TrEMBL record:
It comes from the Bacteria. This is YecA family protein.
């Protein structure tokens, strides 16, 4: 138990009695979680260093030659950066972990760093979601893994993803996504099933993996074709009316990810989203529902149905 005169666990440098003693109880697990986040954040802030940049840039440029027409530059750089750290030049990560191991005193964090030497690639499907975590199934072995999440936004159930994982220090072998989750829509389930997983997966294999998806039409977008059409038509309407509403767009995105609605016409959901936005005063726009239905070529009853669904989702998320 922490004493009154001991350093506060929050890391402020103050004594416990002068800091968090009268605020709230801070558990060791909470402190470790914060330290884990700081370790990862510090790594990506500090690296790659200047001497490491030429080989990293060479890797990125080689990938751009083959996939830039389909992937945004930022996405190529993000995927290539983790390949560089964890496969092409792994000593960068290994040396960083060794330095941190010499600094930290907390036994739990020391043990965690011992298990962090080699982040593991993972390609899988989301089979279950819960608050701040999801359960994923490996796309070839069928292994189930629990992955901690640091986002409040919903994760689309049944979607596929690519990432690197590290142990999270939990007793149930919970994992942590050390890199960005690259979501692959369910439109590409058959494409993934046809991928022949190699015995050894390295950076060149990752490039071939994404080329395999690109050949089937993958552009790095996390949305299914249907969901992308809903968003495109919703945003197109906003642009036509010169309406800027980023919060509204985020709500529609979260609704699509969480509920994965199915409709005969994607414009019915787009029209319903606009009606929801007007009703909730998220959009500075006036119209009648008949006019709105005519604009999207859907019946007022159809757009009312999806406006109600989005409203119910929004109310529960508040």
């Amino acid at each position: 138990m922490i004493g009154r005169n001991d350093p506060c666990l929050c890391g402020s440098g103050k004594k416990y009695k002068k800091c968090c003693m009268n605020k709230h109880a801070i558990t060791t697990d909470e402190v470790v979680k914060e330290e884990i986040e700081l370790l990862l954040q510090s790594f990506y802030n500090a690296y790659p260093e200047r001497p490491d940049l030429p080989p990293y840039i060479e890797l990125v440029n080689g990938w751009k030659e083959q996939i830039q027409e389909r992937f945004m530059t930022e996405l190529i750089e993000a995927i290539a950066l983790d390949e560089y750290f964890f496969d092409v030049a792994p000593t960068i990560w290994e040396n960083y972990i060794e330095k941190q191991r010499q600094k930290v005193l907390r036994p739990k964090l020391q043990q965690l760093l011992n298990d962090w030497t080699k982040p593991a690639r993972f390609v899988g499907k989301v089979v279950e979601t819960a608050e701040h975590k999801m359960i994923a199934e490996h796309f070839k072995t069928g292994e189930h893994v629990t992955i901690a999440l640091d986002t409040e936004r919903p994760i689309p159930l049944h979607s596929n993803f690519y990432t690197f994982l590290l142990p999270n220090g939990e007793e149930n072998n919970e994992q942590l996504a050390v890199s960005t989750l690259i979501f692959i829509p369910t439109d590409f389930d058959e494409t993934l099933a046809k991928w022949e997983m190699p015995e050894r997966w390295d950076a060149s294999t990752t490039l071939q993996f994404f080329l395999h998806l690109i050949e089937a039409g993958f552009t790095g977008d996390e949305w299914t074709n249907f969901e992308a059409n809903v968003l495109t038509k919703t945003i197109q309407f906003l642009n036509e009316q010169k309406i800027e509403a980023p919060q509204f767009v985020t709500i529609v995105e979260d609704y699509l990810a969480a509920k994965q609605p199915n409709a005969r016409k994607d414009v019915a959901i787009a029209a319903g989203a606009i009606r929801f936005g007007v009703e909730q005063q998220l959009l500075d726009y006036e119209t009648t529902w008949t006019e709105l239905g005519a604009h999207f070529d859907v019946s007022p009853s159809s757009l009312a149905k999806y406006a109600k669904e989005i409203e119910q989702f929004y109310a529960k998320s508040q």
